[in-house]
Amino acid sequence: WYEFTYGYLNSITDNFSEERIIGRGRHGVVYQGVQDNGLRIAVKKLHLMPGLDDEEFIIEFHNLVRAQHQNIILLLGYCHHTAQVLVEHNGKDISARVEEGYLCSEHLQGGSLDKHLSNEPCALAWHTCYKIIRGVCEGLHYLHKGVEYPIYHLELKPTKILLDNDMMPKIGGFGFSRFFDTTETFNTSEVARTSVYMPPEYVSKRQITPKFDVFSLGIIILQIMAGKESYTKYADIPPKEFIEHVYGFWVNRMQGTISKHTSREVRTCIEIALKCVESSQVKRPTINQIIQRLNKIDIIEFSSIDELYRTREFAFEFLERITNDFSDLNKVGSGGYGDVYKGVLDNGEEIAVKKLHQLGIDDEQFKNEVNNLMRVQHENIVRLVGYCYHTSQIFVEYKGKHVSASVVERAICFEYMQGGSLNDQLSGMILLYLH
Known about the structure:
alpha+beta; Transferase(Phosphotransferase), domain 1; 3 domains; six-stranded mixed sheet; 12 helices; 16 strands; 26% strand
């Protein structure tokens, strides 16, 4: 990350011209900045925050910059600018100190989710809808659970969810929330625009809990699946009837070709959304419970003779530990798509961890491959034990400048076969024959 100068931000936004404005919010105005190398960044000019001094601003930025996740907008830098200006007061010109804060983040070409929603259901293809829903849930889970101090968004809505060229969602607009008075009175236009995402306990009592964001999440999922406004038509009907209505939309959208797996995705998302918008915050799930529910969609349980196996999602750090950091001593094979390492699970089970090369396979291919492998269960087919998908952000030097880069690690884990491959056995037999 960088501490940008005011002069630099002023130059890349054409003096913060109206033509460069790409968004407005309660906390500030967002401008598009074009750097010398052609890369675009989003520059958010924050409204004045009384009582927030230089040190607090910088400390808070350092806290926010630690929030690095594939579904969170990446912060690139900041600027805290102080200037002395002449202002009129009681008929006289006096010198005043003006402080301005700026946050700089990655700029996403796909725009906000709001621009992709329609008043009717099924505006987007289902796989796109599910990618967005899953991504927003993962991003919110990270904000609540993945950083040292939980970050509550408090303004989660479609305009705060940005999309990249592949329709991957990233949550933005979550910075500096705690520095604003959460009991402030909204003007009429602001209430009309945002109150639908606010839970009842906040509207009536100004109570803020982690379930605030969960309620907002539920409204967003309903808008994605049933239409930006259409979902309210079914607000008073029983939940089961509502589920069937929305499910019917998607069956018709896919012309009756909906697969069993997709059917589970659709129904689960509707059920999650309805639980999230419960008027009682106690009845709403936590974001952790929501993630667990989504994970179950892709977990296929199957019975063997003696035990129940389950496909697991492993943390990359865990695979590093059980393979001794993917050491050469643990390597048991190599192929065109990756290297294979032996690892031992905590229960003593030996597994083969295939760490895929970073190039040659994209995210969609990886997901399809894992889903296909989970469906193949046979005594003469090597059993899939689990998989890993891990992303991290690093800063690297590129053309003389430090830029942010995403590093993706993918792995597929199989049962470990003690006897090796048939090729190994044949080679041994040939050598024995020759001797």
